[in-house]
Amino acid sequence: MRLIRKLIHPDVESVAGATLIRRAARGIVLRETSVLLLFTERYNDFSFPGGGVDQGEDLIDGLRRELEEETGASNVRVRRDFGYIEELRPHWQPEFPLMNMTSHFYFCDIDPELRATKMEDYETANGMRPVWVNLEDAITHNRGVMHRREASMGLSIQRETFMLEEIVNDLSKAA
User: Fold this and answer.
1) What does the DSSP assignment read for the chain?
2) Taking a C-beta distance cutoff of 8 angstroms, is the pair 1, 59 a contact?
3) Of 52, 96, 165, 174, which residue is the least packed, with the fewest Cβ within 10 Å?
4) CA dihedral sign of residues 134, 136, 141, 146
5) Are 22 and 101 in contact (CB under 8 A)?
6) Residue 96 predicted with pLDDT over 80
7) Domain ranges in the chain?
8) What confidence tier does 16 reach under pLDDT thresholds 50, 70, 90?
9) Is it the case that residue 129 has pLDDT exceeding 90?
């Protein structure tokens, strides 16, 4: 899988210190000009479904689990990998002030109808919900949040917006 980019979050002041290592798998599910994303009210942003892979869990198995839980997707079929992003960002645990997140992105197909989600409590509390949204509209929305530097802005918006733009670029090359 190709490295797409290494990111250092703007809030990282120093790369020294204990770092939590986390692997994640994220799904890219397209239908014409729309993409299946998660909208999170707390952060007012769009992000790709997926998340942390459990210790010892295969990336593809973790991806399928996360897509099913967060979006209600069924019959998840991984078509191909797109690449991964390494990201250094602040972390909330005092013993690990930094997190090195490696997010692996995969193009996937799913059955047409979404079932009920099985969100974790914090995801529900944050107002996370799956939505089909136009790729350009999602980029414009996230860019607006970053431009306004909204107080509620989450840590992942830079990564997610960058990936949305990469996908648009990839699709335009294929056309």
Assistant:
1) --EEEEEE-TT---S-S-EEEEEEEEEEEEETTEEEEEEETTTTEEE-SEEEPPTT--HHHHHHHHHHHHH---S-EEEEEEEEEEEEEE-S-TT--EEEEEEEEEEEE--SS-------HHHHHTTEEEEEEEHHHHHHHHHHHHHHT-TT--TTHHHHHHHHHHHHHHHHHH-
2) no
3) 174
4) positive
5) yes
6) yes
7) 3-174
8) confident
9) yes
Sequence-distant (≥ 6) Cβ neighbours of residue 99 within 8 angstroms: 19, 20, 21, 22, 88, 89, 90, 91
CA gap 140, 137 in Å, rounded: 5
3-174 domain in CATH 3.90.79.10? yes
Q: Tokens standing for 57?
A: 């869990």
Tell me how crowded residue 75 is: count the other CB atoms within 10 A of its CB.
10
Confidence band, pLDDT 50/70/90 cuts, at residue 32: confident
- What separation in angstroms does the CA of 55 have from each of 6, 75, 86, 98, 122? 23, 24, 18, 19, 21
* pTM value surpassing 0.70: yes
Residue showing tokens 């239908």: 31
